[in-house]
Amino acid sequence: MRSLVPTAVACLLLAQSICTKAEAANIVNLTQGQWEVTGSDSVNWNGSDLVFETQSPNGADFNITGYFDWYSREVYRGRELFTGTYTSNGLLNLRGFQLINPIGIGLANYQAEVLSPSQIDNGTWRLGGIRGIWTAINSNTVPESNPNTAAVPEPSSMLGLGIVALGGAMLKRRTKRKAPQQLD
Q: Does residue 26 contact residue 143 with C-beta atoms inside 8 Å?
């Protein structure tokens, strides 16, 4: 029985490892739909739009491109094109590189965290000495299967698998001990 304890512990640790790795691989398809930005620095930028045009794998991360359509007080202020990365741990790093029809906007660097297929939060931007905060929601997303994600079993089912594995190991061991004796 003592030798089964390390086996059970190993099964449970493997189950925990599988769940942790699968959670890290839960990448959102950002190119689905349009994101509505809520943000501010010295100006209110609520109602601005964020569009991710491409999301290309680059190792464990993704290269992304897209644009912001900036609005202040419901007046269009221009488009900012960006490139960036979306990391496997859910972080966005964007860098504006071109302005189209700018009125009071400039190129900035952005950081944020992708929380779900419909929510980006904890965003910041920096444009020279100007710092801003932002979030974005995507109400147009429809849950879809992403080929770059792994199906994550519920932890309770992983525990169940560990218990079944332990039971199987115990049954196998017990069956070996009580092998039938041959009759002459």
A: no
> Structure pTM?
0.65
Pairing, β 75-86 against β 119-127? unpaired
Structural contact between residues 49 and 39, judged by C-beta atoms closer than 8 angstroms: no
Report the distance separating Cα 153 and Cα 118, nearest Å: 22
Contacts of 127 (CB under 8 A, 6+ apart): 41, 106, 107, 108, 109
- Residue 19's φ and ψ, nearest 5 degrees, are -65, -45
Q: Which pLDDT score is estimated for 140?
A: 81
**pLDDT at residue number 11:** 47
- Given 3.90.190.20, 1.10.150.110, 2.40.128.120, 3.30.1330.60, which CATH number is that of 35-137? 2.40.128.120
Instruction: Locate the domains of the chain by residue range.
Output: 4-24+153-177, 35-137
What span, in angstroms and rounded, lies between the C-alpha atoms of 139 and 35?
Answer: 8
Cα separation, 136 vs 149, whole angstroms: 22
Backbone angles phi, psi at 177, to 5 degrees: -70, -35
CB neighbours (10 Å) of residue 129? Answer: 5
Query: Which residue positions in the chain have pLDDT lower than 50?
Result: 1, 9, 11-25, 144-147, 149-154, 156-158
User: Residue 97: phi, psi to the nearest 5?
Assistant: -130, -10
